[in-house]
Input
Amino acid sequence: MDIMHIARPLAIKSLGADGLFSGYASVFGALDCQNEIVAAGAFTRTLGNWRKQGRMPAMLWMHDPSQPIGLWLSLNEDKNGLAVQGRLALRTQKGMEAYELLKMGALTGLSIGYRVIASRIDNKRKARVLTDLDLFEISLVTFPANEAARVSEVKAPAVLAARKKRLKNDSDTTRAVVARLHQAARTLQQNTTRRV
Output
């Protein structure tokens, strides 16, 4: 079995409070650097098979099967391509690293791991058109093959939001305590001055 990979850039729509993110793992009709084009409907059969099994393809780090970094929650074909929504495993080192890199824009690619079931040649574009694929995994990658697929949304983890809120509250409390201490010091100084 010959498993291939097509990498796509990630357009980050949002990275969620719980590590949720969404984007496109594949964009239909786009010629990639491997001279291949994924046709609309190429994932229909394989997505149906995954749904029948009640499972999803793996979410991997750089196509490394020993480094899962989260779960794919939804995979759907729309008019643009293979729309994906996933959740990073934020309690793992690699999941948190992926989150940080996505958030800052240093990680921008998605890549699919697949086997070709059916294809045809587009003589006009001199490219191979992939019409039916078995999808095995979708990875976050550094160097994508197709510039059209992007993570479009990345949201901050709830832990970070709670930490920011707590720091703000702590800062407000600290300012209030310091103000009271200054007031007490002025009162003490006035009382000392009156005694002398």
User: Anything to note?
Assistant: The longest helix spans residues 158-195. The chain is about 30% helix and 40% strand.
